[in-house]
Structure formats: C-alpha cells, structure tokens
Design goal:
Layout lengths: L1 E3 L2 E2 L8 H10 L5 E2 L1 H7 L14 E6 L10 E6 L6 E4 L2 E4 L1 H7 L6 H12 L16 H10 L6 H8 L9 H12 L11 E2 L5 E3 L3 E3 L4 E5 L7 H16 L3 E5 L10 H12 L8
Parallel strand pairs: 4-5, 11-12
Antiparallel strand pairs: 1-2, 3-4, 6-7, 8-9, 10-11
Helix pairs in contact: 2-3, 3-5, 4-6, 4-7, 5-6
Length: 277
C-alpha cells in the first residue's frame, strides 16, 4: 500500500511510533519530523483537536523546498544547533524545541501538561525511576533563543507553571485547579516512608505539612488487581497517619472542578487555614 510518494507499507503492517514514521526522514537528509508528529514520538499528552490531527508534520530548514506529500503538513523552519536530534532512527525536533513549536497550537494548560511530561523525573527512591527528556532550564533556554517565535508569550507563561514530578496530564490539571483556586500548591515527587525510613507510598501529589496524599485514579484503576492495590495503599496511608484524597476524572471537569472542594475540606480538616497556618 502506498501511503505517500515513494513510501509503501504492507497492508497488514502494525508498525507504530518511530517505526511507522522513519521512512519520511529516510527519503532524504533534509526532512525532519516536527510539531504534533514529533510530540507523539516523545509520547507527549495532546488534547482532542490537535491530538486528533494524525497527518505527518514534516519540516525542512529554511532555504530548502517546501515539503509536499500526501498526508503531510509541510513546515519551513529555522533550527539552531541541538534543536534537531535522532531518536530510534528518526530525525525530529528535540523535546524542548517540539514544546516551543506547539506553543502556538496548544492552550496554556495543555502546554503546561506537555512541559510537565517532558521534565518529569523520579529518583531511585521510586518503584519505577524515570529520567526526564529535558529540563525546565532547557525549555527556558529554548524560549530565550527564539524571542520572536509564534506562541512565545504562551510559552513564557507556561514556564512559570511547569513542575517536575507529574506523570500525566490529569495530574497537571489537578495541580493547576488547586493553585488557581487559591489553595496551597501540592508537592510532587513526595515519598512517604514508614517508621523504619523505608519508602512505602508515592502519592501523585501531597501536602507533607498536613500529611495529605492526593491520588488521581485513571481508567486503569477499574482493573480488579489495581483495585486491590489501591485498597492496600489506602490502608498503609491511614496506618502512617496520613489522609488520602482520591481524585477521578469527574472531579476535574467544569469551571468549578470538584477537586477544589475535596482538597479544601481535607486541608481544613487537617488544620490548614487561609492565612497560611
């Protein structure tokens, strides 16, 4: 089956990710995956709308001919050193450059969620350590190098809100909803240890001062085995003298998300007051 000029794939092909896109950069050494296509290879969270655009976004440096192919959105871009990298055999924009390119496409909250994804890291105290794709300093440096780029104002605003430690876009939205409502900003990458100092809990976000754990329950928490693990986690939380606040998708919806009420009540019940005490 021909998907674009010079690119054929078997009808039954199940290639995904880099394997499905490598041909677009193998055809010539001037083609670079960019924008939404690069974001997908970096596994960045994308909202509906932009996230439903499955065309191939292909860029060339300014001075070359405009990319024109079936199912391809062409871009002519200026790249500074380090902004084009190779990943799994594919040439594409670096994580930080991809983030800045999407500043003109994504809403502020979505750009923050993408930034959180790129900079997320968990240390050796976590069950599944994770390395960041780039740092907040990398994102800031990218903005500084392209002061006149489209979307740079949104990027600057997003930089102020990006934090290290959020594993998913809903976790980012949960944090932003709490901060926007005037509640204290929760701590990410918090490790709760037992009385021997052994790590036993890794909340999605936390208020250590008030011993409150915030857990976002996504769709996978409906799995019976996961449900048992959630029950075990809840019992451990109580045994250590912490309060667990569980948050679902429905608590993040609407102009006044219910997560704000749930967390405010938990904070007040643990001694928090608006004057900061």
């Amino acid at each position: 089956m021909t998907v674009s000029r010079g690119i054929r794939v078997p009808v039954q092909s199940r290639a995904v990710g880099a394997a499905a896109l490598r041909a677009y950069t193998d055809l010539d050494d001037t083609s670079i995956l960019a924008s939404l296509s690069a974001a997908r290879l970096w596994e960045a969270p994308l909202p509906g709308g932009p996230g439903s655009d499955w065309r191939i976004h292909l860029a060339r440096r300014r001075g070359f001919s405009f990319p024109r192919r079936a199912n391809v959105v062409g871009h002519l871009l200026t790249f500074l050193p380090g902004e084009v990298v190779e990943y799994n055999g594919v040439r594409l924009t670096s994580p930080a450059r991809t983030w800045l390119d999407l500043a003109s496409v994504l809403a502020l909250e979505d750009l923050v969620a993408m930034g959180d994804h790129l900079v997320c890291t968990h240390g050796p105290g976590f069950p599944c350590p994770r390395e960041a794709l780039c740092s907040i300093d990398d994102l800031a440096g990218m903005v500084a190098r392209h002061p006149g780029m489209r979307g740079v104002k949104v990027a600057r605003a997003a930089l102020e809100l990006i934090r290290v430690g959020a594993d998913s876009a809903p976790e980012t939205r949960m944090r932003l909803a709490l901060v926007n409502a005037g509640l204290p900003e929760p701590v990410l990458n918090c490790i709760v240890r037992d009385f021997r100092g052994v790590p036993v809990l890794w909340p999605d976000a936390a208020y250590p001062q008030w011993r409150i754990s915030l857990q976002y329950d996504g769709q996978h928490h409906a799995d019976p085995d996961q449900h048992l693990r959630d029950m075990d986690r809840h019992e451990k939380t109580l045994a250590l003298g912490w309060l667990e606040v569980r948050v679902g998708k429905q608590h993040l919806e609407g102009e006044r998300p219910a997560v704000v009420r749930k967390v405010r009540e938990a904070l007040q019940g643990c001694g928090w007051t608006r004057d900061g005490s």
